[in-house]
Q: What sequence folds into this?
């Protein structure tokens, strides 16, 4: 302990406090993004996907299947009908499988092609572009909309703004009615809503989702993608150097700057200019307002609008297209993109296995469920003719969408006599409760508790026999 710890004099660190005068606008509200219209291949693909999924969303609840609404997620009745498949609370594992498969499919697509779900199929993106389309048709192009917002209120501005917001509310109301129509019969919903005869929860749900759609697509827009959607935050965990994303090629584009269209590309390169003319169109068409030339950013939704804008400029300048394109980090560095790689193959294998298991489980799903409830008032009783009687209640659930007739039998015990209706008819998607007494000669009972089985099977005369065997206990002494 004779050694002494050396002491060194350290000059104190000077703390540089921020100058408030230079940060007076640090917390100003966000600047409104005026999205410029663009035409091109990516925009055509995005619109096609949007129209397909929008059409499916609007059409599916109106489809009929065997006299019923094809898709009806009836939460009140705890029954989900999807065409010929009816899911009950007991079948929520199937629903969980579907969500897990959807998640892995999203991981697989993201690993391969980045956030194409966000850019081409996400409802937030689709409805945002629908609202922007109404803006363009009513208020004009990007520059006209900017000037319209800057000038004071007059009649022209008033009627344009009023018409735009009326169109937005109409789209939001139609969206809400259609969405709620997945959870309640949609044909009655439209009539009862506009005649004010719908239930409180139906009316509340329609108004709630109308406000949400109007606020999300009309006002919040990119805030949903950049601040509220968790997918934007964890997407980087699925990216690798071979993932296709929208990217700018700095080796070809830099140094950027304006130039005359009369000069050739070779002359500009000799003067140290790249292919980027710094027109900022890629920023103006971006729905989240980012500059793709700054590299990969979590705000980018891979919609490809900047690709179309840049390709249009390159075409006018007689330059090769692809300065901004769907490419990979390896390809940007001059290498080759590896399509088949272990990470992507792993997602594909897991996804294939889960889809196969789901299909198998649905294909072998028995559309019948039987629940046995013993009479709790008395374990058993002896009848006047010396027999032992146990009383049960059978809850027979017809999980199909067609009516069926079932026969009830008891297995596992000899010389049994059943008292009650042994053939019952149950409507599709209904639960039928059948009380049943089981009487047995005590001479054949060798134990106090005998295991028996209730056998319920269909007798509709079809080739496919639907049956369920449920165990229970017969008690004596």
A:
């Amino acid at each position: 302990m004779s050694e002494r710890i050396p002491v060194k004099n350290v000059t104190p660190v000077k703390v540089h406090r921020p100058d408030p005068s230079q940060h007076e606008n640090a917390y100003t509200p966000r600047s409104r993004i005026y999205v410029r219209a663009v035409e091109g291949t990516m925009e055509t693909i995005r619109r096609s996907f949007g129209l397909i999924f929008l059409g499916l969303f609007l059409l599916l609840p109106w489809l009929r299947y065997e006299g019923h609404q094809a898709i009806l997620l009836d939460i009140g009745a705890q029954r989900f009908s999807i065409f010929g498949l009816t899911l009950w609370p007991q079948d929520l594992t199937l629903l969980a499988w579907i969500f897990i498969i959807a998640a892995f499919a999203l991981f697989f697509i993201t690993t391969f092609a980045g956030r194409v779900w966000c850019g081409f199929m996400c409802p937030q993106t689709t409805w945002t572009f629908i609202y922007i389309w109404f803006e363009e048709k009513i208020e004009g192009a990007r520059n006209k909309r900017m000037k319209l917002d800057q000038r004071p209120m007059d009649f022209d501005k008033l009627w344009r703004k009023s018409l735009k917001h009326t169109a937005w509310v109409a789209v939001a109301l139609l969206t809400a009615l259609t969405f709620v129509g997945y959870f309640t019969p949609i044909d009655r919903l439209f009539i009862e809503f506009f005649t004010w005869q719908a239930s409180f929860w139906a009316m509340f749900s329609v108004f709630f989702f109308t406000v949400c759609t109007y606020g999300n697509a009309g006002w919040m827009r990119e805030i949903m993608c950049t601040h509220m959607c968790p997918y934007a935050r964890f997407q980087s965990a699925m990216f690798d150097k071979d993932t296709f994303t929208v990217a700018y090629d700095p080796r070809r584009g830099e140094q950027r700057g304006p130039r005359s269209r009369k000069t050739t590309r070779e002359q500009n390169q000799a003067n140290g200019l790249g292919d980027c003319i710094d027109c900022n169109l890629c920023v103006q068409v971006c729905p989240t307002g980012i500059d793709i030339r700054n590299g990969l950013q979590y705000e980018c939704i891979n919609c490809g609008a900047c690709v179309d804008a840049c390709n249009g400029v390159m075409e006018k300048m007689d330059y090769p297209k692809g300065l901004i394109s769907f490419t990979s980090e390896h390809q940007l560095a001059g290498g080759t993109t590896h399509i088949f790689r272990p990470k992507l193959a792993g997602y594909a294998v897991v996804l294939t296995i889960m889809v196969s298991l789901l299909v198998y489980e649905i294909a072998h799903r028995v559309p019948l469920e039987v629940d046995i409830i013993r009479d709790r008032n008395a374990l058993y009783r002896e009848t006047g003719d010396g027999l032992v009687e146990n009383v049960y209640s059978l809850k027979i659930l017809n999980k199909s969408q067609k009516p069926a007739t079932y026969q009830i039998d008891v297995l596992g015990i000899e010389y049994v006599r059943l008292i009650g209706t042994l053939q019952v008819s149950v409507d599709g998607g209904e639960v039928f409760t059948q009380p049943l007494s089981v009487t047995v000669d005590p001479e054949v009972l060798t134990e106090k508790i005998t295991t028996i089985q209730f056998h319920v099977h269909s007798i509709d005369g079809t080739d496919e026999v639907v049956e369920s065997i449920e165990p229970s206990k017969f008690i004596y002494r």
Summary: The chain has a mean pLDDT of 87. The first strand starts at residue 64 and ends at 65. Residues 29-365 form one domain.
